[in-house]
Specification:
Low-confidence stretches: none
Radius of gyration: 32 Å
CATH class of the largest domain: Mainly Alpha
CATH architecture of the largest domain: Orthogonal Bundle
Shape: elongated
Mean pLDDT: 85
Structural class: mainly alpha
Number of helices: 7
Distance between the termini: 105 Å
Number of domains: 2
Largest sheet: none
CATH superfamily of the largest domain: Cytochrome c-like domain
Strand content: under 5%
Order of helices and strands: HHHHHHH
Helix content: 40-55%
Length: 172
Amino acid sequence: MIRIICVVLIASFIGLVVFSAVTLYDETLQVGRMWETPAIRPYEAPLPVMATTLVPFSDGELFYRTADPDTLTAPFDLAEAQVVAQGRQAYRYYCIQCHGVNFDGYGTVGQSFAPPPGDLRSTRVQNLRVGRIFHEISYGIPNGRQPALASTIAVDERWQVVAFIRSLGVRP
C-alpha cells in the first residue's frame, strides 16, 4: 500500500513540475503555445469604413438583370472590329463547347443534348435585339438549355460575345 501511495505522490509531483514548467514557458516567452491567438479577438481593431462608390446603385449587374431586354443597348459600338475579335475569343472560351465551331449547336458538349443548343446563325437568333441576346447569355433562357453566365463572364465580355454573334449573319 505504501508503494502505491509513493508512486501516486511521485507521479503527482512530476505532473506538478511539468505543469509549472509549461505554465512558466507560456507566460514568460513570446512564443508560447498559443493559448491566446489573434483569432480569439478578431474585432479589437475598428472595422474600416467602406467607400460609398463601391456598391453601384444605378447600373451594374442589377441594372442589366432588371432592365427590359428589348431596350438594352451596348455600352460600346458592337460593329467595331476589335470588339468582334474579342467576342470571338470569348466565344471560343465560353461558348464553343455547346454551340460548336460552326455555331450550329453541335459542339463537343452540345451534340449530346436533345434538342441541341440553338443555331446562332439562324434567322431567329440573328433577328433578336442585341439586348435580348445579352439577356439570354447572362441569365439563361427560360425552359431552355442556355445556362446563366452572368456570374461567369464579365459584362463587357458578354457584350463582346453579342457583337461576335451579330457579326456571323444568317446562315445561307
